[in-house]
Structure of Flagellar basal-body rod protein FlgG:
Amino acid sequence: MKALNIAATGMMAQETNVSVISNNIANMRTTGFKRQRADFQDLFYQNLRRQGSQTSDAGTVVPAGVQVGSGVRVVATPRIMSQGDIERTDKEYDVAVRGEGYFSIQMPDGRTAYTRDGGFELDATGTLVTEDGYTVAPGIVVPVNARDITISQIGVVQATVGNDTTPTVLGQIQLSRFVNKAGLEAIGDNLFLETAASGPAQTANPGDESYGTLLQNHLEMANVVPVSELSALIAAQRAYEMNSRIIRAADEMLSATAQLS
């Protein structure tokens, strides 16, 4: 019976949907996390009576036809790249992006990754790094005798070094943009990689046209809305239950048919 297979595809699709929702909820306090959603497509159709086919020599045609679908599938889990809430941390190397753009991160294998997580630290050499020790491009080094470190809205890193009375520019943080942000590949650790779908990175200074600005002593939180996720979870659970009832009903129909034979 086709209903069994159709309902099974519905249950599998909702299992994936629940997995996406649970990952969103699990990361609701992850810095810079961008929530996902599950998008669905119907599967191919069997034409039992094709619409538009001729029904007589006079040229009459079937107006609607008879089509039976094969179920549903998850076709994509796009990320919603909206701005998350910005929270003050009072930590001098914490930086939030307000608006468009990603920090560029140099990976140990030579690749460049991108992130919205601006929770930075200094390593043993004074280089600005992520919490996993990856260098924040282009590689800004803070001297050991530096004090009063500031990161401006346009990404200029300054500090007063030694006995100097005026600040010294230590480097420039830049931001990268993509034509299709949803095309970035998430690799964990709050990092994304460029793909053919995202297009190449377009790098510029914060505050340039269409680029966001930076806010020191702050972090961008996840853009997960708990109430919306719980509502979506309830809807997914109900859809799963309805598909399971279809399987139960189809089984009862098959059982009744078997008893008649």
